[in-house]
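Supplementary Methods S3. Input chains for the assembly prediction are listed below.
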Amino acid sequence: MNNQLIEVKDLCKYFPAGKGNTLKAVDHVNLTINRGETLGLVGESGCGKTTCGRTILKLYQPTAGQVIFDGKDISGLKGKELLKFKKRAQIIFQDPYSSLDPRMTIGEIIAEGMDVHCNYNKKERDAKVAELLNSVGMKEDYANRFAHELSGGQRQRVGIARALAVDPDFIVCDEPISALDVSIQAQVVNLLIKLQRERGLTYLFISHDLSMVRHISDRVGVMYLGSLVEMTGSGEIFAHPLHPYTKVLMSAIPVADPEANGSEEELEIKGEVPSPVHAPSGCKFRTRCSYATDICAQEVPELREVTEGHFVACHHCGESGEQQKNA
Amino acid sequence: MQNIPIEKFQITGLNENSMEAASRPQVGYLRDAWMRLRKNKVATASLILLFVIVLMVMIGPKLSGYAFEQIDKTARNAAPCAKHWFGTDKLGRDIFARVWISGRVSLTIGVLGALICAVIGCIYGGIAAYFGGAVDTVMMRIVEILISVPYLIVVIVFSLVLQSKGILTLILAMTITGWCTMARFVRAQMLAIKNEEYILAAQALGVRPWKVILRHMIPNTLSTVIVSITFDIPGYIFSEAFLSYIGLGIQPPNTSWGVMASSAQSVFTFYPYQLFFPAVMIALTMLCFTLLGDGLRDALDPKLRK
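Predicted structure tokens for the full assembly:
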């Protein structure tokens, strides 16, 4: 059996941005996600992480490219086939306040997916809701409550339970922790890890919190302005970032140990993120990159394998790596 | 720090679930709203008063023993007394009977007008919001054109064209442009709801579009629509009263609160009670509907649940 659960090929999602402009939210992204692993997707706000996740789930119709889920191209799916895909691929949303219908009880919210995909009678349905609530660490009598009676962390767990209700294989976690405070973040992430172990789930974990991504991910992809700039194992990317953008990102992670300070120099980044409507030609990062040369403006760098399992989209990454070693 | 062997640690039994106790009995959304409405004393009083008015409108004309168009030549412009509880008008007609018969017309116009507008407005606004884009633009421009036509002109044109000034003509004339405000309102509501993540979540779960509209979009709009209906009803009652008052509405021998007030106005200084009773009925009904609408808005919002 193929180890890859999801293969994304040249995925593009453009939005019309008025006056004939297009906003390239996702621009030729290639990635694969193996069964049972967690792929972290990081990048700053507005770089297309969320759009990428939603397009993979076919919540947005891709402009170009393919998403192959378990050997099947999902772009042409319709009717029952599409429903089958939706049963297997789910999403957890960022904002726990807008992702739950204020007029439905928690039980109804969780059961919504079951009503579509499973033919349970009322008793089975209630039992399943109670079981799901328990598995996300909540008591079953929460089923009769309304969403506004719960705290942010509890709401997010309800969101997780709703996604789990249809027994999916793959879940896009779309910044599930960014709206929560720090103590609750850890609870939710650990819950996600626990559920992954129990149910053999595959995650696409979208976040801008690098330390959390390091904690949960097996591999990490870094996005900049709609393109994937670097992708490798999560240990490798934090130890040896190759793309200039990734290096800056990594140097921005706060270090918890005050005594360890000073060993790493803090890299700075020039200027602002360019508008995705008028992205720079060639390498999109070149306007802010200190290594940029002529070739960066002319050619779009391909994502290439520099060392084993380490993909970088940069014309200079080999050299810059050497530069760093020499220094 | 010393190294403490892990065996020395033990879980003291802090159970997360035990902190999250407190449960409530299972109640549906509507029953819950009903319970909250009943706790609101002002709204409950309004509801009871409205119920009494409706009851009286149904049985009231029979209580006094006079028909509403029956003329008592011996008692013209009689003050309220044991024989004529609310007095009589200048033709000697019993005001008590007339007030309730008028109520039938006024309430029918109010409720029917508001309901018709709500239904048309919901469908129109819902379609505009759901399809969006060019459909939305065209539909909303039509609404704006209709809204800009003064409704007095519409009423006059309708009564000329249909050659009648009955209750149906009035309802038709008032609703022909009246639904536009509701359509705008519903569209705005639905547009806001359409962007909520729970709609996206339902789509991700594979819930069919019509079910998304039925289970999420309509219930989340409905409470505001119900509230705005209760606010619209007094508006229609008042419009009818106003139109009848200036002579464009209900024609004799039929009567409504507006007609009664209009005919009592000429003799107001001598017989103030002739104006008093229909005016009080208009005021009471409008107040009750407004207060009830206020209470409903609070009751239908689950965020206010205690």
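The radius of gyration of chain A is 21 Å. The CA atoms of residues 34 and 64 of chain A lie 23 Å apart.
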